[in-house]
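This part of the workshop introduces the protein records we will be handling. The question running through the whole workshop is how a given chain folds. To make this concrete, we reproduce a full record directly below:
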Amino acid sequence: MSNHFYILIHLLNVLDERIKNAMKKLGLHELTLPQQKAIPEILNGSHCLLIAPTGMGKTEAALLPVFHQFLNSRASNGIKILYVTPLRALNRDMLQRTLQWGKELHIKIAVRHGDTPKQERQRQASKPPDMLITTPETLQILLAGKKLRKALKSVRWLIIDEIHELASNERGMQLAIALERLKEIAGNFQRIGLSATIGNAKEVAKFLGGAEEVKIINVFMEKAMRIDVEYAEDMEVAIEKIEKELKKHESTLIFVNTRDTAELLGAKLIERKNSIEVHHGSLSREARVEAEEKFKNGKIKGLICTSSLELGIDIGRADFIIQFNSPRQVARIIQRVGRSGHRIGKVAKGKIIVSGSIEEYGEACVIAERALENKIEDIKIRKNDLSVLANQIAAMANEYGEIEAKKIYGIVRRAYPYQNLPYDVFIRVIEELKKNGVIWIENELIKKRKKATFYFIENISMIPDERSIDVIDVT
């Protein structure tokens, strides 16, 4: 028999019997290659960055060894596992995916974000779950709260899903500092990052680990993918091409680059009696969930969406993907087309339809070609952003009441985006906060003022604002 077979048997033998029984009940009869590669490293206690194609079981690759360690560790009160995702919708989806595991293994799992009802938040504060699914912004709130901050002292494992979505922006910089703040109260914990699309793994591993060394597990698998590119002379021709694909396939996701385009395309397709819905971040949660459920249950043939459905939210199986106009990035088209053929051995099929600009058509052709060659762009991690730094200084003043400036500086410098932050720049930001009445500073001891809490909460979200205006047609 092959070495592969013996490795598989060994891994299954190593995992706790309760996990093996749960796997059988949940229909998991074998381990995927990413799971075979990641499970031993995570069981070994290594910090890991796992990169593998969509639909290859990355979530289970992280959770199964973490659950194994949890089940075989000494029980204590508090949150042991933190699972961070970029979107509330992903949080909700992840809760549904993990609840059955929790039931089988007697692990209490909960979600915490801006939509969590007050009663549930109070329950979590008095009886913290074993595993908490949350967003980067809510993690900031947890670090500031009295009861849940105490519960975070028990954290032993932290998983960041879709890490590529966070590493390159202000949210990621804020999260990197939050991980070091968490380390101050919980001590060392195992860090695990998950992604399908990272060009420069070493850089993202540094972002994940801070001062800690991270093992990179890059499972490049030649996932069968077909991406065609078509040119449409104008919008009407593009609509006809989209309609043709809707008729040919059972379930089609239509990705667009802006919310305005989603609404415009949706209006035109609905006007022509096509069975579609629109999904984007400006719609209410209820409208988004309704659209997701209709698509999942086969009540509509197509769903027009922005990046709101680019990540791993469970909407059932799409058998075809349309990208309207150039996706601008190789990583983006791989992520989007990867939403079709979402099973091992299936071919992911997609088409880019470009309307109007011949230059954009040329760009789309190049991007499609690079995607098929898996030539993904590097993620650029921003460094030393002062607005994020100011917010985190205020957050720590609020968290500790009073704290030495040098201690804050040490915590911040452990975060990879700030590892080269000059001390004089750090002090200038402190002086600016003092001038604005956010903090006191005397003999390098920082003390919070009443305004510190307001400033921290007011500036906690690093997600760019998008404002909309209601228009009433009175003609």
In short: Residues 465-471 have pLDDT under 50 and may be disordered. The CA atoms of residues 293 and 315 lie 7 Å apart. The chain has three domains: 3-218, 225-372, 386-458.
